[in-house]
Amino acid sequence: MSETASLADQAETETADLAIATTALTKRFGHQLAVNGIDLAVPRGSVFGFLGPNGSGKTTTIRVLLGLASATSGTARVLGHDVPSGLRDALPRVGALIEGPAFYPFLSGADNLRRLDSADARADPGTRDARTARALERVGLTHAARKKARAYSLGMKQRLGIAAALLTPRDLLVLDEPTNGLDPQGTREVRSLIRAVAGEGTTVFVSSHLLAEVEQICTHAAVMHVGSLVAQGSLDELRGSGERVVRMLTPDGDRAVAELARLGLGAAEADAAAAAARRAGPGEVTLEAALPDDGPAAEDLVAALVTAGVRVRGFDVARPSLEERFVALTGEGFDVAR
Ligand SMILES: Nc1ncnc2c1ncn2[C@@H]1O[C@H](COP(=O)(O)OP(=O)(O)OP(=O)(O)O)[C@@H](O)[C@H]1O
Fold first, then answer.
1. Ligand 1: does its nearest atom lie under 6 Å from the Cβ of 331?
2. Which amino acid residue places its CA nearest to atom 24 of ligand 1?
3. 264: CATH
4. Which terminus of the chain has fewer CB atoms gathered within 10 Å of its CB, N or C?
5. Would residue 44 count as lying in a domain?
6. What are the record keywords, sorted (predicted)?
7. pTM surpassing 0.90?
């Protein structure tokens, strides 16, 4: 087999393992670049967090993936089918909930689902009642099946939306900010539902501006910033990809900086807020230095500092947290609440 052929085969196998794959996907609105050449790779079986602040391009990307908007350039595949030409084949296996579910308030939850089910030409009318009952059970709404949708709480409406997305078996569930506006109880319900759906083998692609949410429910994540994808991978990969940082507390700042420089590390005083948080006493300074993966071991650094006469009152080596890492990537904070 030629090298070109085997590379093509390898690319094909890799794409087959992906529920969503895009190449240089771009969407412009006039002069505005809402999505800027993104290469998304969402592994099958993952719970994939699509993370980014408001306005970073998440909803636009989702709309393009589902054929609700057309890309300006680039390519996308969903469940192995080209978007938009192959969406007719992909969409029956994709459940989606974007920009909040719309229901008839005067119909019960079950009747709303029946109505949606009847709009699906492939759904057998003979098994409609069983299908709606199963979907309601799946999201824990059996007790509220006959209640009018207008009497549902926001969390119940959101779960009804997920039930609608799960009326038929799905390989991929796409959820746009599914916990937006929910109270803590509703948030917990929706998150545990996502875990349960993923546990049954469905790939879940979920957008969120909440880092804590992504950390709680996702196996993988991608980070959007002003239309660009600035990082993606498994959460472990994302955590591990930040450079380690040495932080030390000492009354001998100048001597420590000189010794660290001799060891190849450029140390600087931590910013005032961080230093205050570490409660440096009179004359003490908190120093920080990036430590490359091939840099000296922590114990060798401490030994060298002590030998050089530096009084080491505090010392630690840590990878940045996911939050610190994402702030570094995007230059802005994420809502970490809830
Ligand atoms: N139909 C449209 N026409 C013009 N600009 C749009 C349109 N839809 C989105 N945009 C712009 O594209 C950018 C990305 O918006 P998008 O809704 O995709 O972001 P998002 O990350 O989903 O944010 P949010 O969580 O607030 O929905 C924003 O600047 C937005 O104003």
1. no
2. 54
3. 3.30.70.120
4. N
5. yes
6. ATP-binding, Nucleotide-binding, Transport
7. no
